[in-house]
Design a protein that fits this description.
The protein is α+β, with helices and mostly antiparallel strands. Helices cover 38% and strands 32% of the residues. Strands 3-2-1-4-5 form a five-stranded antiparallel sheet. Strands 9, 10, 12, 13 and 14 form a five-stranded antiparallel sheet that branches.
């Protein structure tokens, strides 16, 4: 999908999400809060019924109660039961309200003293408001994230267009090397994992809440229809794959939580920053027990990423140009710590980062654990070019 259409697609979610959050969540809650301080006035029900709204594929219902009240010697007509408004499925709950307020009943209505024509029968807080705020918020976040992603892709495409047909070396200065990794007090480079385990947990949790939050609204509607004896089988069958996907995302969340409790690995390289054509050491040490590890491997990977524009779409290609297994062992005692000597040839491509091209180097660490999530961590590092030589 092109970046422009990605923004349009995001707006399709963002704008309705904003509308749902405001009109069915935030605004009713503000009204409910304000109505707690409204005055009370004697009122009488003039008509009361459940109104039916028939659509092409569903039927919804709404509470329609009209009443007359007096305020400071004047008579007003009102028809607001609560601040929800609109219609929804579930006739039984609305019939209970109508039976509670039959025609001719007298009660006290809540009247806005600053605008006496505004009144309400029941200004109580409803969980429905929070549900709609959450539901609309999910749509808003999805739309906002999609729009941001589209804008970022358009900016990348714009930069790619400005570069034209020039090569990376011509279009960008030769010193486009990523910032060097931090060095400890002994001159060793301390590598950080590409993604922390708890960041994976947070991402899985967000995905589970996002997906299941949307699906749960429709599941609730199907459940209500079943409770009222009019099961909507088409909706139930339609929801089955979405519910299964949601269950899978929840399982992925628990998988990520278990993986977060795997032993951590401290990785150092040195001395100093590594350069192409030079030998450097790679040291690892587990911060935690390694007795459960059945196998341990360290793989050195060099990868090229290229972003380019074709027509109105932007694409990203990835290519692994170097992959080397440095160590593979099964002895838990030897796994706990170790040192490797790593030598990359003089012609090895150094690390590079431009708006459209990147060369990355990383150590991929994999530890197999029976009946538990495997240990998987990537540790990127900056490889500097070979130092210049003068004859």
């Amino acid at each position: 999908m092109s970046p422009k259409w990605l923004v349009v697609f995001g707006l399709v979610f963002l704008l309705p999400g904003l509308g749902i959050s405001w009109f069915l969540g935030i605004n009713p809650m503000l009204k409910t809060q304000a109505a707690q301080d409204w005055a009370r006035a004697p009122a009488e029900v003039t008509s009361s019924r459940v109104r039916t709204h028939r659509g092409s594929d569903s039927t919804t219902y709404s509470i329609e109660i009209q009443y007359r009240y007096e305020w400071e010697g004047r008579t007003y007509d009102g028809d607001r039961y609560d601040f929800v408004g609109g219609s929804s499925s579930g006739r039984a709950s609305k019939e209970r309200v109508v039976r509670e307020y039959p025609e001719g009943r007298t009660f006290e209505a809540y009247v806005n003293p600053n605008n006496p024509s505004e009144s309400v029968i029941d200004p109580s807080f409803r969980w429905f408001y929070l549900g709609m705020l959450a539901f609309g918020g999910v749509f808003f976040l999805v739309g906002a994230g999609t729009c941001v992603g589209g804008v970022v892709q358009m900016r990348k495409a714009s930069m790619a267009t400005s570069v034209g047909g020039q090569s990376a070396e011509t279009a960008y200065p030769s010193n486009t090397i990523p910032q060097a990794d931090p060095v400890d007090g002994r001159g060793n480079v301390v590598l950080k994992p590409k993604v922390s385990p708890w960041a994976m947990v947070g991402g899985a949790l967000f995905g589970a809440l996002l997906w299941n939050g949307i699906v749960s609204v429709f599941v609730y509607q199907a459940w209500k229809s079943w409770q009222e004896g009019r099961t909507e089988w088409f909706l139930v069958l339609f929801l089955v794959p979405f519910v299964l996907i949601g269950a899978g995302i929840i399982l992925a969340f628990f998988y990520a939580v278990l993986a977060a409790f795997n032993p951590r690995v401290l990785v150092l390289i040195g001395p100093g920053t590594p350069c192409a054509g030079q030998t450097f050491s790679m040291d690892w040490e587990f911060l935690g027990s390694t007795s459960r590890l059945q196998n341990f491997t360290v793989t050195l990977v060099g990868e090229e990423t290229a972003t380019y524009r074709q027509g109105t779409s932007t694409y990203t290609d990835k290519n692994i140009f170097h992959e080397e297994v440095l160590v593979s062992m099964d002895d838990p005692r030897a796994i706990s710590s170790g040192t490797l000597q790593v030598t990359l040839p003089f012609e090895a491509i150094h690390s590079l980062k431009t708006p459209n091209n990147a060369i990355t180097w990383q150590f991929k660490i994999h530890g197999k654990i029976n009946f538990w999530p495997d240990l998987k961590s990537d540790y990127p590092f900056v490889l500097h070019p070979q130092p210049a030589r003068f004859s």
